[in-house]
Amino acid sequence: MEIHCRYRISILIYAKNTLRVNLLPYMKKILLPIISFFVAFSTVSAQYGQYDNAKTVPPFKIFDNLYYVGIDWVSAYILQTDDGLVLIDALYRNYPAHILQSVKDLGFDPGQIKYILCTHGHYDHCEGADTLKKVTGARIGMTETDWQIAEWKIKNDYANVNTRLTRDSRDLVIRDGDSLRLGGTTIKFYITPGHTLGVLSMSFPVKDGSDTYKAFMLGGVGLNFEGVQQTEAYLQSMDRLIKMKDIQVSITNHPDPGKILQRARLLQTRKPGEAHPFVAPEDFQNWLKELRANAEKKLAQEKAKDTNQ
Known about the structure:
seven-stranded mixed sheet, globular
């Protein structure tokens, strides 16, 4: 799935000659600070429980082309390409303002975000997508099933709280095996059902000096769902991923499972010649096996519930 289209706002002035004036760059410059202000300071009526007041995290560089712009319990990343930026996950509540400020703090222009890829339809990963789209002009991508969660068409306890995405938000419906190419960077997509039935996982190259590694984002791992069928789908996804032996870097959409913040501290003290703390292929395989073992226990519990009903 290679995308080359661009949105353009223009005025046609008919005189002796037709004059076409492209206003998009100017509108972005004018609207970006205004919308960022309202995103940051608007009041939010609905509550998110313990996650109402999550802590922001200063943005940091992980690889030469990958940066963390998330908060303390939900990740968001900027993948830099030579044809624009890709944002992976959009956060929620007023935290999209943190993403925008983080992008600027890293020295990038938020208007260069071309795509917003949501790993699944839960509020903490996609609620901010529509706001960020309005600010940056980026295109939103998600799987069909999880678009329906975000649009409130499929009931889910973790669906967006304040902002229901609409069909107008839909830009890309991503399927298993699709890919997105920007410049010299290709992102490959995998649907790995389990946490939701449309979890979007992806692989992409990350660079550390002259070295290039294959990174993988597993788009959802929690077992906070019910049902034998969905648990079996989770196990099938784990079996599929365990067979992928070429993954060198695990990038997680919550920082704790991948020890993102702990590895970042190691990265700060890394000395020349030392291994990159995020390059840990064995850790990824061990984690997948742990996830699978936990899902096996859940499957037994779900089957027992079915028997007792």
